[in-house]
Structures are given as structure tokens and as C-alpha cells.
Amino acid sequence: MKKMLFLLALIGCNQPGNGWPDPVPIKPVYIPTAEDSAKVLGPFSRIHPMGKYPEMIKDNVNRQPELKIEEWLSTPVPLADFGRALKPGQAMEMAAFGGGLTAGVMNGGITRQSQQTNYTNLLAHQMGITNFAMPLFDKEHFNGTGYYIYRDTESGYPNWDRVINNTISVTTESPSTIPLYQGKISNYGLFEGSTEWYVPGWGCENCDLPTLLASRFKGRSPDELPYNFIVIEEFFDRWMFGIQTTRQIGGFDYSFNGSIMDSGRITDYSINYHLRGKKGVIFTIPRYQDLPYMNWYSMKEFQNAYITFDRNGTADGVIDFLKPFSMIPTAKLHALCERFKGRAFSANFDDIEVIDYGETYESDPQLFYNAKIREYATEKDLAVVDLFDLYQRIHQGGYRTDDGILIDGTEHGNFFSSDGIYPTALGQAVIANEVIKAINRHYGAKIPLIDIAGFAEKTRIVFANQ
């Protein structure tokens, strides 16, 4: 009886009065349904780094091509001098290999317009060569794989709409395929692909998306093309795949330095197979920290933060905020940042979502790999396109093109597209100029640079902050 009276007394003492604040509702955690997933997910959703999260993609929308690239591509250019890149009397025949950058990924997809504005196509125009053939999507299916556009949000953290009209078809058979490309191919760029895909006998069992994209080229081989100049943009997609999928990053991981740790040099058979004594260019690897993708969710937005992660067990790793680290963007990180922006932040993550100080060091391309790329270029007489230096300078701010255009590498700037990884059309033009500079410098060539301001004006590119 005494216990009962005591309990009633406690209840009475704890009744809210007029001075009590109203309870603050907690925002419910959104869990996407199967219907949500069906609405926004498709076979190409992984091209965009956030495309696999239905809660991040709000609507399906229709869009028409915005740029007038055909008009610019039809503009005549001064005759180029290729220097010692060609033997006397040779005509230029260029072939390109690489990942998403070379394939024309933009805004988390590949479209006819993003292919036309690809740096290799712009380079071919400035070279004055008319035999370079991009494997363009047909005019009816101009939106290709579909793509994503930023939408305004109250929090400032990104969400996207997905463009779905006039896209290519995908067969329901196994394995799935997309329409076969008919015509000459000079650009063999492939998202998450590389030169390996075009070596006879090579195959990949667990590469569903690159396999689907490569089905356009089924039965076709670069060996059909008598090319004498090669573009090799080989390593960046591998680096990005590595930081997104490796639980404990180490120097011997294949994505980060693994192929050079044993021999001390680049020995990739596939590159040598396609190179075979030809002249060309090869790209260094930029730091992923210089991408908007890795800066969407800055920890500077919080009063303080405490982050743990599951290294070998549960919450047994702790982030040291005094040392460099990165967070892989996910729907979970997005939800937490929205909820706690401007306040204290405390959370535990899976190891794969966190790149701590040691992993940051091991995955730095400047640690080993870029030096080995330069050594390989010297050995093979290749020009070096220093994307590492370009992206770093753009990230630091204040970078201007030779004709004075300010390049903005932030989230809504003019260099990177809405996927936060691959460039806009203007960014592709800037990269094309870096390729031209590298060729001119290394081979004593005289290829005219793109007038970036004129390119933007003629193609109707709109950008601010100039």
C-alpha cells in the first residue's frame, strides 16, 4: 500500500503545468518503399554516386538538350601542327581509352550532348581531324542513360531529380544489353572501364554496369582502327571505386597502388597492348578530396562532432578531427547532417563509410602512383596531362582560364556537374585545353587552344560569378 501511494505521489508531482515547454517532435526516419525504388532506380542509377538511394531522388522529370554544341563543332579552326607526335606524311588517327571522364559521364549519366562535349571530341575539333568518331546515342534517344539535376533544398544539402525522357532501351534478357552502336568508334571510354576491356580474352564476371554499357560495342575492337595517337585516361574510376567499396584501405589494394607495389613501376599489360610504340597522352589521378562529391557534407557545419566507426568490431574506431579524414556520402550521412546541422553531431558508421587519417594517406595518388605515371610517360614518350594539379588549383579557388574565365569547382560551380565527380561541358573544355597544352609542350606541336569564353557563348552555356 505504501508503494502504491508513493507511486501516485510521483505521478502527481510530474504532471506538466503551464510553465512546461511543448514537446519537440522528432523527425521520423524515412524508409523508402519498393514503389519509391521502382520510380527512381534503373540499370544506370549507379553512374550517379547517390542514384542508388531512392530517398535522395525526388522526382522523374523531362528535359530537352540545352547546349548548341553542333554549331561550335562546325566552326573552322586554324591548321594544327602535330610536331613530332606524327611521322612525316602521316595523317592523325586518334583513339581514346578511359573511364567515365572519357566516356562522357556528366550529371550522373551519359547523353548525346555529354558525348559531343567530351574533352576527346573537343580535342579532335581543335586538331582539325574529321575522322574521330564518338559513339553517339542516336538523336531520338538523346538523353541516353538518363541523368540527374540538382533541386533546391531548404537545408542546402543536395537532392536530385532524375531525367527520364528519350532514354535508351535495355533488354530484359540475361545478360541485359543496350542497342548496338553501328559505325566507326574512336572513343572506347567506359564508366568503371579501362583498356583491359578491349584486350582479347579478358572478361569480368562481377562488372554488371560496365558490361551493360560495353554491350553497345559488342563484336567491335580498337584493333580495327589504324590509330597512331592514343589517349589513356586509365586510373581515376578505379580510384573512385576503391574509396567507395574498400573497407580498410591499404597501399597494396589494387585500386590504390597495388599494381605497382611489387614491381615498382606500371606494368599494366592492357595499356602496353594498346600503346605498342604509339605517341599519345596519359593522365595523372586527382585527389578525391578536391571533388564536390567529397565536400557535400562538411563537418564544419556542426558545433562539434564525435564520429566512431566499426573497424574490427562495434564502434572501435574513432575519427581524430585534427587529422585529415573523409566521409563517403550516403543517404544515412545526408539524413544525419540535415537533422543536426548547426548543432552537436555524434554518430557511428560502418567502416566502409569512413576514410580515416591512415586510409587518407594510403589512398593519396600523389604518394606513389602519379610519380609512376610520369616515369611511365617518360619511358614511353607520352605527354602527361596533370589532372592532379588542375583539380587541386580549381579546388583551392581563383583558377582562371587563359582567356580570363573564373573556374568554380564548388558544388554549384561551372566546372563539376551535379554528380560532384565528373565535369560539366565547360569543365570538359578546360580539360581539353590541358590536353592540348601537354601535347604542344611535349611534342613541339602547335594545336590551337579552345577559346573558353567563345565556347561558352556559342554553345549557350550559362554561368554566374564572373
Automatic annotation (TrEMBL):
It comes from the Bacteria. InterPro entries: SGNH_hydro_sf. This is Uncharacterized protein. It comes from Dyadobacter fermentans.
